[in-house]
Amino acid sequence: MKCKRRTDNRSLDKKAQEALRIRVVRQVREGVSPEQLAKTLDINPRTIYRWIERFHYGGEEALRNKPKTGRPPKLTAAQMAWIAHTVRDKNPQQMSFPFALWTLGMIRELIRWKFGVRLSEVSVGRVMRALGFTPQRPLHRAYQQNPALVEKWREEEYPKIRKRARKENALIFFADESGIRSDYHKGHTWAEAGRTPVVKATGKRFSVNMLSAVSPRGEFRFMVHEGTVTAEVFCTFLRRLAAGVEQKIFLIVDRHAIHRAKRVRELLEEMDGKITLFFLPPYSPELNPDELVWSQVKRRVARELMQSKEDLKARVLSALRSLQRMPDKIRGFFLAPSCRYAA
Q: Which residue in 244, 170, 252 sits closest to 212, CA to CA?
């Protein structure tokens, strides 16, 4: 059996070679793996990393037939390939770093440790972008999460719920609860250069709790509650959710104890099938689009100055009502990578 010979791109004319180099590097920068492109185009992966190296130090002009001269590169194609493989496939803690996120400072230190090459963080950022990496907010998952159950939910359980909802002309909602305190701080603050600010907590804290439900159609229902969210409070929310709705409601929630309480089961029986509860896999908040409501509301409220519980409640209500007037925004929550299955 004869082995298939790798295509020799040198057989292409000069213009075709130039176009191929530029097209491949552009695809890498858009997120396509160099290894995947190498396999598809039957090119040696080392060749692609050499093109990435040239692009990094000279831009697209360096990929043309007569590239401009410049300073000699500090990282070779082989070294850039190693960096890409390491960041893509390994957790920083596997490389003896204390944290699990690949920051520019951490990658910079990795390059210095592995290759003895010192780069600025700006240069490291250019390297990572040339390799097709971008800074992203990671999804946090509980270590107790069972990936098999998550996959089953996406591929089997939720499609069954959606099929049944169509058959019974039911509305699908995802619901959740959250709270916000007056001392909630997140983000950046202005401070004197060189002195890290310390945000001190005050003993005069106050809070409000929120319950809400979102649908793939962009519908948004909510309730604000002062005090602990109990099974009875959840029952009140269920009654409000059903009020004025003629169709059945299929409500998807997490497995919190209040959702499975006896009082809730009794209410559902009294409602005679008006609302049916379904439960997400354990420790899987990222599957619930309603979780994105809280990050939206908290981000807005955290920018405001709260003087009292009434002030906090008013700000929360304002944020929730504003969100209710944006059905496109609600539908957008279902397009998040972890929630797209429910769109």
A: 252
